[in-house]
Amino acid sequence: MISNRPYLIRAIYDWIVDNQWTPHMQIDANYPGAQVPMEYVQEGVIVLNMHPSAVVSLSLDNDLFAFKARFQGIERSIYFPPEAVLACFARENGQGMPFPPEPYPEGYEEQEDMENKPALKTVETSAKSTDSTDKKPKSSDKKKPSLSIVK
Questions:
Q1: Strand residue runs (E) in 61-143
Q2: Which of these, 111, 134, 150, lies nearest to 27 by C-alpha position?
Q3: Nearby residues of 128 by Cβ (< 8 Å), 6 or more positions away
Q4: Cβ atoms of residues 74 and 64 within 8 Å
Q5: pTM score, two decimals?
């Protein structure tokens, strides 16, 4: 069965554009197959302005979202699978839809670069190491996904 995720994302995107708002997508930058400018990634997530005037050659296919955009004046090719999308929302008011994180495909950890593994392990072990760091990750683990306005 085909996933409904890309259909929902396209629908929310179109609704935002039809209302003359600015669509943004929050992306899991570490998701397999995602190609985003890593220098703008914060805590494994990047928020991308996907307004039609901000992107070129936008393609929202069922298996891959792709476009070109400028970052500090340099054109970059951006692409990611719909499974990497964590939220699609309007910048002006935060209205949109969060999506639950998708599990990485089976066997991905075995194919991962070694440089990515320590970062993932650090996050997991820091939650168990000391009392001061123990409290912060637990409270954030219990938070539900939320949207924030990006200006």
A1: 65-71, 74-80, 85-90, 96-98
A2: 150
A3: 134
A4: no
A5: 0.70
